Amino acid sequence: MLNGFMDKQFPGLLLRKPLFYSWDIGIRFELGDPELDMSQKERYLREAGDRAIHLYNLLHREDDELLVVTNAHFLDRPRRHERKLNVYRRRVKDHRVLRKLSQITIPYIYAEAEKDENIETHRFVLECRGRDLRSEHLIRSLCNTDMGVKPSIEHEVYVINQTTGTIFHVYDDRGCDVIATSADALREVYEACNDWILDYDRQRIEKSFENTTTHDSRDGF
Which residues contact 201 (CB under 8 A, 6 or more apart)? Predict the structure, then answer.
């Protein structure tokens, strides 16, 4: 399911960080306010999570068909059944959805940067609908990871929307990448949250939305 969708809609894309710089059509949003110091950590994380949740809600609907992909990197071979459940157990509303969770082991996806032959990437893929996820819990857990706050998720999580052709990735409390098969699939979030776009990448992002017409990406891409 995952490979077929990626080969058709995102040919040549490796599902890894940095997602925004790996695809022509995308937006990098700033989540955490860099002007807040760590004495305001609680407020910082709350606001970062609020932004990420708002972005997610603009891009996903309850009936959308999703693939929730987790890249977990291990030095040893994990007890797969235990880890398979722990990655997603708290982030789904009904544990019966986990019957559609699959796992494969692939070569370390950052091998060219880190020469360690003992590391493997364990990729988990959950096929579900938007309504099946506890999305707010998932997103706040991702924002918390580097800040030593629980709940947290130490692995990379990508939410692939098969219905609209988008991929959503909170890389940490600082920011969120979204990419798509077309600029129109991101137009609503681009216009609604334009002030959150990372200024460093703004010029590149705005070029993606020049000379395009608006249509509902749920009508096909």
Answer: 20, 28
Question: Order of strands across the sheet with 175-180?
Answer: 26-30, 175-180, 166-172, 156-161, 65-74, 120-129, 101-107
Q: What is the DSSP letter of 150?
A: S
- Rounded CA-CA distance 9/44 in Å is 35
DSSP 43-96: HHHHHHHHHHHHHHHHH--TT-EEEEEEEEEESS---HHHHHHHHHGGGBS-GG
Lookup: tokens for 61: 């609907």
* CA of residue 116 relative to chain centroid, distance: 26
Q: Which residues contact 31 (CB under 8 A, 6 or more apart)?
A: 48, 49, 51, 52, 143, 170, 173, 174, 175, 176, 196
Say what the pTM is: 0.91
**Structure confidence by residue, pLDDT tens digits, 170-199:** 999 999 999 999 999 999 999 999 999 999
* Neighbouring C-alpha atoms within 13 Å toward the C-beta of 199: 1
* pLDDT tens readout for residues 42-52: 999 999 999 99
Contact (CB, 8 A) for 165 and 59: no
How far is residue 65 CA from its own chain's centroid? Answer: 15
